[in-house]
Amino acid sequence: MKKIYITIACLIGLLSGCNDEFMERYPLDQISDENFWKTEQDLELYCNSFYSTYITGFGSGWGTSTVSPYGYNEAIAYGDVISDNGAPQTYSKVAADQYNGHISGGSGSGGWNWSNIRDLNYFLDNYQRGDVATEVRNVYAGEIYFFKAWDYFKKVKTFGDVPWLTHVVQTNSPELLAPRTPREEVMDSVIYILDKAISYLPEKGAEKTDRLNKDMALHLKSRICLYEGTYRKYHSELGLDGTEFLKEAAAASEQLMDGRYSLYSTGDIDNDYNDFFATYSYDGNPEVILWKEYAADLNLGVAFSRYYAQNLRHQHGATRSLVDEYLCVDGQPISESDLFLGKSSIQTEMQNRDPRLSQTIANFGTYNLQAGVQGANNAPLPNIPGLSGNKCPTGYRVAKWFLNDPADWDRVTNGMQAAIVFRYAETLLNYAEAKYELGELNQTVLDETINLIRARVNMPPLVMGAISADPIMESNYATYCSYMPEPVLREIRRERRVELAFESFRWDDLMRWKAGRFLEIPVEGIKFVQEQFPGVEIGKDVFLSEEGYILPYFETLPNGRAFDEEKQYLFPIPIEDLVLNPNLDQNPGWESN
């Protein structure tokens, strides 16, 4: 299986009574009939609804749903707007240490929601009731374990310790008034059920059409274990050893590195990277492990391509912090390379750089919208403040995911741009980082991972023992982080940031590396050149740094973003839930908020 359709059926009638946010609501009582769970079709029907719940892609319909508690639209492309990669027109309260959703959201809000876990456990409590062959029903159990592991991973990232629930919680269940389960126990349980999913799910190619396979679970394990292993290492205050998780991350990644997958490339280094993210189908694509396909003919699509092209959602732009990390074509950082031409304009600074820069960030006059199409005034110049249209507050208009097809824009909520969910480049990056953290990195590992990714865009390889200094990155680590990574780890992290930009990884990476204060790096945009924007007035429409870079939050956030290391690596539990269960304790730093 290479795709997940948005067309998978949902238990609409059966689930109609299942929108209560509280854990104690008995789940799916409309289907508690003794005649259910008897056939494979029953098991498949029950599992179907979880595909659209967890494999969101670009969302569906108008694509306006937001990820709680982070507050960005759920489309994969928008996750970085709360990180140091991106800047939305209206600044993110999460990134500015102004989040207070736990006060206003009520019980079950802010990600502290257990309805999906309840529904997953309901399956696990009942799926063995029917006369279905063990090997058949275990496939569907594998799907449920996959989704449960993914759900709990998200909850641990958000809250740390969370209740581990193995069965459906009833109104009189003691779990309702139990304290949170320690993170160590929860994550051990997550890997246990994920290993069960891996053992139960079919091999790639043996699964039913549009259903999960073993490789997808292996990739999820690679992601989860790298996160947990590095989180434990850099958050030493937890007193937890992450070594076993790092070993599992490397092992899961290595199982996918046996030749079944490769990086997408046609040899066109100036277009392949951007083209990879702008398509209707990933059938046959050797890099994609899991993707979501849309179907306009069935009235099932999403408005993503239309509003992304118009830069309507978040009205965001990339940051100078991200742009400065792209190497020059000689493999040297901009502070060290003779090929870097300076920052006098966006046109100048994008010359002689890693080809992924100009395929991720639109230079003036590139990735244009066709004349006459709504939103066409967003290009060739970005709509910085002072111009009409949907704003690009930094001037660095994001080109990654831009599908240049007005036909798809005109489909609006039936747009069909396909969404990558898991891809092989992440697998390689996970493996390289895990091997470094285990003390097992060598040139062979770099050549099998980082250097394959660089080779796609004809960038020089990373060579151990021959890594240049980077004063910009080193200064940022010295100022905003409590440790200085070794040069090779710094470069692995750079490669991850560049390759995975605007794929919703950066926030998680900063959190697990204990580098949250990178959010405090001043948010800057392009070098403002008055001749390019004759109608824009400095000091009224735009505000500039001493170096002449656009400052998008000069008026709205004059003191810049803030990150409180005592609390912001985790989110708070809603106050109402603390009242309902007095045995729950609030996360550190949020007690008085």
TrEMBL record:
Q: Which residues form the RagB/SusD domain?
A: 287-590
Q: Which residues form the SusD-like N-terminal domain?
A: 80-226
Residues of the signal sequence?
none
Q: Does the keyword Membrane apply?
A: yes
Q: Name one Pfam family in it.
A: SusD_RagB
Q: Where in the cell is it found?
A: Cell outer membrane
What family does the entry list? Answer: Belongs to the SusD family.
State what protein this is by name: RagB/SusD family nutrient uptake outer membrane protein
Organism of provenance: Echinicola arenosa
